[in-house]
Amino acid sequence: MSASPIPTSSGQMDVLDPQDGSLVERIERYDARGMQQAIDRADAALSRARRMPVHERMRVLYDASDYVDRHRQAFADILAREGVKTINEARAEVARAVMTLRLSAEETRRIVGNTIAFDQRPGSENRFGYSRRIPVGLIGAITPFNDPLNLVAHKVGPAIAGGNAVIVKPHEATPLSAIKLLEAFHEAGIEEGILQVIPGYGRDAGDALVTDDRVRMISFTGGRETGERIMQRAGLKKFGMELGSNSPTLIMDDADLEQAIPAVVGGAIAAAGQNCLHVQRLLLHERIYDEARDRFIAGMKGIRYGDKYSEDMDMGPLIDEAAADRVEAAVEQAIADGARCLVGNERDGNFFAPTVLEQVPDNHPMVKDEIFGPVTSLHRFSDEDEAIEIANNVDYGLHAGVFTRDVDAAFRIADALECGGVMINDSSDYRLDAAPFGGVKGSGIGREGVGYVLNEMTEPKVYCFNIRFPHGWT
Fold it and tell me: Boundaries of each Aldehyde dehydrogenase domain copy (predicted)?
């Protein structure tokens, strides 16, 4: 069966450079009708996706990764232009996307089932069988602006590896990276309809994607409120939800500050703090509080922010004026409520200076919610138990960081922290694309990380044979 016709766009949308508001590109925009056509097309391609042998899925993924690798600078230029990352951050994301696609290719050969001992039940002596993993079907992938290439790869790679069809609805601010990645898969020879990128707005294209019964799984990375709305509207299907955090990093009194401070500074300003692993809360033992605070402030003062195309810049802008307004208002409110600003709280257009606050009230939104900007609050603790209590006293739990030389303490603290991952002698911002990635509480449902999400994008199917042998098993 051939794929349905290419979806019809409903108009155009402008992709703007968040640095200065200039036009990057004008592209086709799709509404609910266009998304429905894309779903028709993917549904028609499902049988071909399922029939792709493992070696062909691997070839497509390897070839797509090679294409991205050969065009690294072009991908980095697009990432930097449409998004918030400096050119060096963009290059690092492209390198990660190459690895993510190659990991997906490698994991394809490891989609395995199990033999099942049916004769464990009396009366089933003549039964034997096994399970194998089959594709979920059509997967809807909704991706954010902060990692608009690698997070698309994290959804598309495992989906293709598992024999599924996938529709990507990229963030409306940063669709060009996903479109460029689609180009890589077309060059790799993927069949029409198996992978589509449909730019549009959540209120029409996104809503049509999540509510269609033919879409059997939604893989979403974004804000918690949006994730909850998707789950309320989507109906009976599988979900993968990564919904952010306000990650803590703990620095104990025996920590190596020469190691700790540069790590937490980097974790505080990566992608201008628009990062679910952003070091939003920095917990410092009272014995080293003053020294660690002063070193952290010095590090944040040394961050170079401005022209993201400059090789010398450490940090770029916030995604748009609304985001800059929101961060600025949140900082001002925290100060009005008793917080003390130690550095930052300066704005130039969509740029917001790295900002450090202390004495933020315990139940303040700056502590409880996700700021999604280059703002870090400092918190003093007297012992291990108090540090754990402060870290856990939020309805998020994605990553945490702990700096200590005490191995026993590292294990105790890591076990006690309520989160999906604990980075020992690293900031909360560290992530390996092959590792299981996700959180607890309000940080989401399920895990990414190529091999782990591939398990979610396939389902076990049992095959049982009831065969009577005249002389029993031989």
Answer: 9-462
